[in-house]
Amino acid sequence: MEKAIMEKSKVVKTDQPAANMMGRLPQEIILRILSRLPITSLVQSKLVCRAWRSLIRDPLLVSQHFSQMADNDPSFILQSLRRAPYDQLYFTDFSDFSEGKVISMKPDNSSMLMSLEDSCNGLLCMRDSRGIYICNPFTRLSIELPKFINYPPELGHLEFGFNPTKKEYKVIQILYRPQLEKRDRPYVNESTLVQSEVHVLTIGSPVWRNLGMISYHFIRQTSKFMVKGRLHWLCRPKKNTWATLLISFDLETEQFQEVPKPNCCDLVKCFQHLMVLRGCLCVGSSHNNKELEVWVMKEYGMKESWVKEFNIGFYVPQTLQQKAFRRLSYPWVGFRNLFVQVVCILKSGQIILEYRSQTLVLYDPQHGTFKELTFPGIPDWFKIVVHIGSLNCIDTPINF
């Protein structure tokens, strides 16, 4: 009994300073202070008292905090791809990286046994064999989307985006017609079929809408990137060809359009992946696996505005070298097709690279140096998406 009384007195003492501070400072100042805290600190602050819990849920704070975090160095969600712990999520925050600090943690509900598909405005799009979900890994709030009827959920691309004009979220499901027809007509030659079927769900709507067929085959290994209210992918006109197209999807008009691509090499197969750096659409191109060029579209939609901004030389992370030595007698054979992609660029100008979904490397373009990033909790095989940790809820869109 005495121990219980002591514990209760600690809670009361903790509540009093918070209540006194909230009573003395204008709410505008309080929101401005809180909006600069990491998402991990805000989530913990909800436990202080009822007044703080109510304040942390204030839509104005949610928007201010998201805007503040979006201006910082990026954060990531990594999902382990190993069987154990399969589907485990890890959050990594580089907002204090200028001071050498990296925050790495597992959200409380990070073991959800679901596949991580996409991230938008602090929300994650995930799915399992039963359905598709939108969730916030920090607030633990989630919704299940209407069932996608007629087709198995594992086929094709699943993308998640936000239309800033109408303040609405949309999920886009792209199904591959070759796979669907192959199931019913096994004699069909897949290489000659280039049709993909597009379905869209506006969050809040009870049904998916079929937008019909498009003549593109979306490259599975590449993720979408959103610029100017449009989703972007690398596609091919045929499944088994190297020709690469840059395709956009306008979330407002729901129309697909080809985007002019840079003339970065003679062989069109050199296009490797897309990215967004400083708000601009970028493409990475590889030349005989010797270097990675990063081309930036300075003025959206203008072919003449493509500029080669970075040349990243060949580098094999120590982690991959060690794994190769354990597997092969001639370890460098395993690096002939070394896959590397740019994840993001920090405010310092340094670039974070991901190698074979197994390790992250910090590249300094000014000095041409590479440094492997190690921090607690990083899986040895993972999927990574850029993610802004936020208090956002699906029914309260961010006001930009």
Automatic annotation (TrEMBL):
Report which superkingdom the organism of origin falls in.
Eukaryota
List residues of the F-box domain.
Answer: 19-69
Q: Name one Pfam family in it.
A: FBA_3
Name the SUPFAM superfamilies on file: F-box domain
Show the InterPro entries listed in the entry: F-box-assoc_dom_typ3, F-box-assoc_interact_dom, F-box-like_dom_sf, F-box_dom, SCF_F-box_component
Q: Which PANTHER family match?
A: BNACNNG10540D PROTEIN, F-BOX PROTEIN CPR30-LIKE
How is this protein named in the record? Answer: F-box protein At3g07870-like
Q: Which organism is it from?
A: Durio zibethinus (Durian)
Q: Which gene encodes it?
A: LOC111306491
